[in-house]
Structure formats: C-alpha cells, structure tokens
Amino acid sequence: MARIARFVRDDRPTIYHVMSRTALEGFPLQDIEKDHLMSIVARLSRFYFVDLLGFCLMGNHFHLVVRMYTEEAATDAEIVKRYRRQFGDDAVIMPHQLRDYRRRLVNLGAFMKDIKQGFTRYFNKHRNRKGFFWGDRFKSVIVQEGASLVNLLAYVDLNPVRAGLVRKPEDYRWSGLGYLVQTGNRAGLLDLDLGLKEWNEFDPKEIIRKYRRFVYETGAMDTGKGKQLDPELVKRERKKRYRLSRADVFRHRCRYFTDSGIIGSKEFVAEVFDGVKHLLDSKDERRFTPVGGVKGVYSMKRLAGAVGG
C-alpha cells in the first residue's frame, strides 16, 4: 500500500502533534529510558527552531506537541549560536553549511529523525543489541492555536491517567504538566502558550494554574476509553484551587488527535487543506468531521490511498 502523505506547512510557523510507537513488545521505555529520551528531546528542542508546547513519554510510545518555525527565523547568526551550543564553543560551522542547516533545523522530519535515531543508538548500546527500536514512521497532525491546542495538550497530559499509572496528571514526571508542576518549567523547556492566549494571562504561575484546572475538568469527563480522574479528587481540587468558571466540556477521542491530518476550526482546516492537497494523489473533496464535545473544532482525516512521504 502506498504511504499516506504527511501534511506539512513550511511557509509559516505551524503546530504539530507527533506520536511515535516502539516496534518492541511490552513496555521497553522504563524510567531510565524515559529520562534519556527526555534529555534528547530537550537538547534537540534547543538546537532546532522549534517550541516545545507539550509532551508525554509512555512505556511504548511518546507524544510531542511542537511549533516548527520557518527558514526566516534561521538567520546565520542564530544558526551559528545554536551550532556552538550543540557541539561546543569551539565548534566551527563553514559558510557553505549554513544553507543546509537552515533547511534542516526547521524540518519536522529531521527533528523527529534525530530524536528517534539518537534514542535507538542509546538503547541498543545499553542493551547490547542491534536493530530497530521504533515501529512505523511517526504520525503527525497539524493543530490550530487556541481551543484546539489546549484540548490536544489536555489529551496528551491525561495519557498516564487513562493508562492507570497515576491518579493526578501532574504526578507523572514525563509529561508536560508534570514537568511544569514538579520543576517549575526548569530551563524554560516548555513554551507557556498552551493555547490560552485568549485568556490574556501573562503570569506563568497563573497560566499553569488555569491550564491545570482545564486538564482536571477535562479528565473528569467519562470518555468511554481508559480511566478518568477520580471525581472526588476533582471535587477537592476544584474546591481548593479553582474559580467558579468551568472549562468547556470535552470528551476526548483519541483518533482525532492521532489519526487526523488537521485539527482546528472549519475555516482553518479548509485553509490548510487547500495548501497541502497537492501532496495527495486523490481528487476527493474536503472532509470535515466535528470533534465530539468541543464546540467549533473540526478534524480532517488523511485520505486512504494517498501517496507521499
């Protein structure tokens, strides 16, 4: 079967939800492996022209939510700065290399390839093995700023709760919310956009509090898939920490956030689709699907039988 086209936009900063799953059986990503994978993600997030908005590293797969920038952001001076930060103050990048790095450091595929290959080398060395670690190529979804983004981030941060690993999402340290709460966003690893710009909040502590409230209210909903947050826990947290306003009711459906090509308003989905439809070997018209429980948010599934890389 032909490979399905990957939707990418390289003419403007774009947010992607990416997910990759291991090819090995069981849960090979234990604590030490998750720590190392997180260190690779952190290091490469400072090298590439990317904002890390959210993440969750599970036992057999991981999620990243990133904003990729365009070549306009990759000035010569900034490339040299990042190159030296990556390889040492004495590292020298030749003038003829700048063009190649400018293209590479804004490329989603190159970013993911470096993460996955770097971890595979580490895993194989420490397990004295050879061969593949990751399964099929990573999935990616284009995500609109605002409501679509905050709902996606909540879905990602609630993975450990749904899997029964923790009762409270911030107790899981290999997730965006866990990192924010447990470290105070050490080294500024995560961009604090979180899809909450329309709330006009600029205090980092208040942004985290409001986002945490949103995640709790989302996690309390019975989605029919996986575990939900303990209602009594949510009640206590709401009484102790939350204001009277409530986040929009949301019933997350995994397929929208992992198998879609585009997520956002109907206008956003239409705009992005018109810009990437040349990647598809299909004459099908646009297909919009409302995301259940999230008013005004739509999904466009990738089309079966399409080709591309």
TrEMBL record:
According to the UniProt entry, its GO molecular function terms are:
DNA binding; transposase activity
Q: Which GO terms describe its biological process?
A: DNA transposition
Report the Gene3D superfamilies cross-referenced here.
Answer: Transposase IS200-like
Transposase IS200-like domain: residues covered:
12-159
Question: What InterPro entries does this protein map onto?
Answer: Transposase_17 (IPR002686), Transposase_17_sf (IPR036515)
Q: Where is the signal peptide?
A: none
Q: Kindly give the SUPFAM superfamilies that the UniProt entry links to this protein.
A: Transposase IS200-like
Q: What is this protein called?
A: REP element-mobilizing transposase RayT
Q: Which organism is it from?
A: Desulfonatronum thiosulfatophilum
